[in-house]
Amino acid sequence: MIRINMLGHLEVIGNGRDLAPSAPRVKSVLALLALNANRVVSTDTLSEELWADRPPRSAATTLQTYVYHLRRTFGGVTGGGVFGCDIVTRSPGYMLRVTDGRVDAEMFLEVAADGRRLWREDRVDEAADRLRQALALWRGPALADVRTGSPLTIHAARLNEVRLRTLQLRIQADARLGRHHELIPELRSLVAEHRLNEWLHAQLIEALRSAGRRAEALQAYQDLRRVLQSELGLEPTPEVQRLQTEVLGGMRTSGAPRLLRAS
C-alpha cells in the first residue's frame, strides 16, 4: 500500500520508506495528479504547470517520461499499482487512480467537512474533535517543497485557506466549550503568525477576558490597534472596538466576533 502526503513536504510513503521523486518537475506532475485523484488531468493543464505558456517542442514526450517514472515508483511498491495507486491514461490526459485514504489532502477536506457538518448540527464537542483531527494531518504549508506553477498555486492556496477556516472554526468550538485557558497560548502564537487577522486577535482578547485576565485582554487590543495603524493606517473594526469597550466596562457578552459562516 502507498500513501501520498502533500500537507507539508511531498511524501510518497510505501513499505515504510519515502519514495517521493527528487526531480522537481516529476514531483510537480505527481502533486497535480494527486490533488485531482481519480479525476483526469489534461495534458494541457500538466503542460501549463510545467512550462507555463512556453512548452518545449518535446513537451509531450517529456511528459510521458515523467509519467513513466511515476508509474515505476508505484509499481515498485504495489506490484503494478493494482492494490494502491497507479496512473492510467485517460483522454485528454492522465489520472492517478487511488483508493480512499491514500492522499492526505483529500482526507483533510473530507474530515474538515465532517467537522463543519457536526458544528451545524450543534454537536460542538464532536465537531471540535473532528476539526482537530483534520488539522493534525498538516505538517507545514501545502506542497512546501514543490515548485508550483499556476495550477498548483491555485490548489495550494485553496488548501491553505480551508486550513485557516477549519482552524478558526475549531477555535470557535473550543471557546463554546469554555476552553479559554487552553486557547490562550495557541492564540498568542497565531496572532504573531497572522498579524493582520482581526478575527484571531478578537478571539485572543475574548479568551483572556473569559479567563479573568482583563488587563492582558486590553493589552491585546492595543497590540492589534498598533499593528493595524502602523501597517495599514486603519483602526480595528467596529466589532472589535465594541469588544474592547465591553472589556473596559467589565461587561459579559456572547463572545468575540464569530465566523460569518461555518460552511
From TrEMBL:
Keywords associated with the record: DNA-binding, Transcription, Transcription regulation
DNA-binding region(s), residue ranges: 1-98
Family: Belongs to the AfsR/DnrI/RedD regulatory family.
Domain OmpR/PhoB-type: from-to ranges: 1-98
Protein name per the record: AfsR/SARP family transcriptional regulator
CDD domains named among the record's database cross-references: BTAD
A Pfam family that the UniProt record links to this protein: Trans_reg_C
